[in-house]
Amino acid sequence: MPVANYIAWAIYAGIFLTMGLFSVGFIKFYQSKRDASLWVTIVTMITLTIAFGMVTLIPLDIFLVSNTVDRHTGLKKRWADGDTIYWTTLIVQVLYYARVKALKYSSLFGIFGILLYLFGLFVKPNTLPPHINLEWFNNLLIESNGAKAFWFVVGCLFIPGMIVFIIYTAPGLSLVFFKLIKEKRRVDREHEEVNQKLIKVREQQRMIEHKYAASSAALSTHDHATLENLNDEERILLRQLSSVEEEEHHFLQRMLVVLRPFKLFPLDYVLMVGIILQFFLATAIGISRIGIKFLWVTLYRIKKKSTSPQGLLMITSLLTFALFSFTYSITSSLAPGYTHFGSQVYCNHTEGGIRDCSFETDKIFPCDIWAPTEICTPTVTSTLIDRIILNTPTFGFIFYYSQWLFLVTFILGFFINMFKSPQNEEEQGLLDYVDA
């Protein structure tokens, strides 16, 4: 295995550790200070880190297969023989399986997973249409029934992820643009309003205190009650002011400082991780704005520094399932060609039965599903997605139309937020500060 592959694994280790730190910061950002649970904190942090570790395997997977082909000749590199490629992709597969099992490992899910597995043993894929005769498709379908059952179970995990993707990620993504535009203006306005209220409250306090400063008379009942109310209001305003000042130094800005050195890494790797974080944060914003509800009843409120342990477990579960749907969206909708074959190319010119594009560089083409399989190696991620869809076409139907539902929800959310008046969060914020 070449040195570049070891460097790629080292980069992945660094990204994985960074995502672990990001998970810690994310949980701490939402966790209630007075109602924190150590075990819930540990479980949610580990779960998010594992989920991030699974999704960030995508750019590593793409790099590893891209590095097997010489872009100048359109042929496999000398070291990229069948055994080397097998062991390279096997490592990625093992990591995928380990993380999927870690995410779904519980007694309840174990029973449910066994039932799905048994059901998957008897599910047969539809036969391919007669006009499709691709070696790439045939390779995906040649596997044991046990493997097909496993893909069926994994496919079932994508369905709740798609639901989260439509309900929370799409509105959250539309909110991101408006939050970026309005956030600074809103913080400045809140800072000014709180300062003005604080000045008025303190002025009223001074007036009452000055009224009795020159005499030894005790405060009247009315003035005493008024002063007590003013003191309570001052404490609430000070908490508000402290919160606004903290918001100016948002934890995301500190995380960007941590991530700044990673600009030295390969651009496509950083871009892919950035896209993953963008979708993740959009989902978190959507959950925070909409809340976790059953029908019209709000079960948990997801707020900064005031989320209960049960709410943290729920948001972690939703985000974990959402990361499954990100895998499909990136692979099949956002960048299907790139996530299937990376930057691999192949020589489409043969001379004497030997592929040679030394003098025919215009015959070197990017890899696609029609390319020769002995040169173009699909990524483990795309193979996983394609096997799920081909072995159970119903999943393909659900996944495909869920992307359209996502787009419709995003557009609706965008226009609603464009014409909707800013939400008045002052009263709710006051309740939060009083509770604190």
Overall number of strands: 8
Q: Can you give the mean pLDDT?
A: 74
Which percent range describes the beta-strand content?
under 5%
Count, helices: 15
Compressed to H and E, one letter per element, the order equals: HHHEEHHHHHHHEEHHEEEEHHH
Largest sheet: 2 strands, antiparallel
Point out poorly predicted stretches.
Answer: 104-114, 251-265, 424-436
- Helix/strand-derived category reads mainly alpha
* Integer tally of domains: 1
Evaluate the radius of gyration.
28 Å
Strand order of the largest sheet: 1-2
What's the overall geometry? Answer: elongated
Helix content: over 70%
Distance between the termini: 56 Å
What does this structure look like?
Keywords: Coiled coil, Membrane, Transmembrane, Transmembrane helix. One of its GO terms (cellular component) is vacuolar membrane. InterPro entries: LMBD1_LysCbl_Transport. The chain crosses the membrane at residues 6-27, 39-64, 84-100, 107-123, 149-178, 269-292, 312-331, 397-416. α2 (38-55) packs parallel to α11, α3 (57-66) packs antiparallel against α10 (267-290) and α7 crosses α10. The termini are far apart. With 436 residues, this protein is mainly α. The chain has helices spanning 3-30, 38-55, 57-66, 82-104, 107-121, 135-141, 145-211, 221-248, 251-259, 267-290, 309-334, 336-341, 380-391, 393-419, 426-435; strands spanning 69-70, 75-76, 292-294, 297-300, 345-347, 350-351, 354-355, 364-366. Mean pLDDT is 74; it is low at 104-114, 251-265 and 424-436. The protein has one domain.
